[in-house]
Amino acid sequence: MAANLRTTLTGVGTLLPEIERGSGLTSSWGGLLSTLPLLTFAATSPLVARASHRWGSTRLLVASLGVLAVGTVVRSLPSVICLFAGTVILSSAIAFGNVLLPALIRRSVPTHRIQSVSALYVTVMGLMAAVSSGISAPLAHTVPGSWHTALAWGVAFTVAAFFAWLPRMRGDKPQATAGGSHSPVPWRSRIAWQVTFFMGLQSLAFYTAVAWLPSILIDRGASSTTAGWMLFYYQVVSLAASSLLPLLTRGRHDQRWTAAGASVLVAAGFTVLVAAPALSVVACTLLGLGGGASLVLALTFQSQRAGSSGEAAALAGMAQSIGYLVAAAGPLLLGILHDTTHSWTLPLTVLAVLGIVTAVAGHGAGRDRHIAVPHEAVGRGGG
């Protein structure tokens, strides 16, 4: 499942200049295309916990994989309407996987292994995202159908995951039929809001980099293929950071300074892009180190800060609905700022400042505490 959560999204950034030329989209529309998955995540994520309670997590995962395959194919059809409609369909499917995996980990994995298992699926997710970024532009130049075909190559992994999950549907029982209660969304929990904003701001940095880093590098003289491989390098570094983080923080329950430090690295990466654009390798290294660690922590917090799998699903739904709404501002804002100023200096400066804000949210979210859920709300099954 993790192999399908970023593959269909990260290749778009590499292909965005060609998509804009081929379909006549402006930078603002290109920013909207990059933002659309995040808006869809924000709209869909609140529905997942209740649907999981009613239908069962495994059934929802299998259904979402089927929808993801359909959306990927629709997006690759030669039509601007299909480009946007397919993006909404596949993003809705990914939103279910985003929310359900932290809850499944909380239900199935001992507490002391949550971060390691979260890092494992983030590593797989990041590996596929990096591969997609690296090969999408070369594919567009070599296969029939150009960028349309390059947008759809990941459907092979979606079909494979669909058939891998099918046998697991047999033992999946919805909590509603088993008498389980639906955990409320922890709107009144301070630490839940800190987890939410940390999730949103680190996602804003990631999706903005994925959407616009190739365009920034191309604007400064790099070829589309070189820019694509720089995005690949950024994600490989991110992959290494997400893999090593559990080893470096093993046994630590308080993650405040780890989250804050990772966010500062991201801010430093954007600062280098502004102050010394020739040092793009250094910038990508800093962005990858900080971003990879931040993603593992953001997803781990959604499991660790909850007392049960139901609470984890509720917290993940909150963190990812509001968090992705925050993140959605990134690609669109950068596109608008670039169109207005005809420069990347102001957009990158804004991202550097937001990196410091992320550090503050991460410091709060990293505390070794559980969210406080009112018992009477749990008993009602509402919230």
TrEMBL record:
Q: Which Pfam families match?
A: MFS_1
Which regions form coiled coils?
none
Signal sequence region: none
UniProtKB keywords = Membrane, Transmembrane, Transmembrane helix
| InterPro entries (alphabetical) | MFS, MFS_Cyanate_Porter, MFS_trans_sf
Q: Which residues cross the membrane?
A: 60-77, 83-105, 117-140, 146-166, 191-214, 226-245, 257-274, 280-301, 313-338, 344-362
Q: Name the CDD domains on file.
A: MFS_NIMT_CynX_like
Q: What is this protein called?
A: CynX/NimT family MFS transporter
Q: Name the source organism.
A: Streptomyces ardesiacus
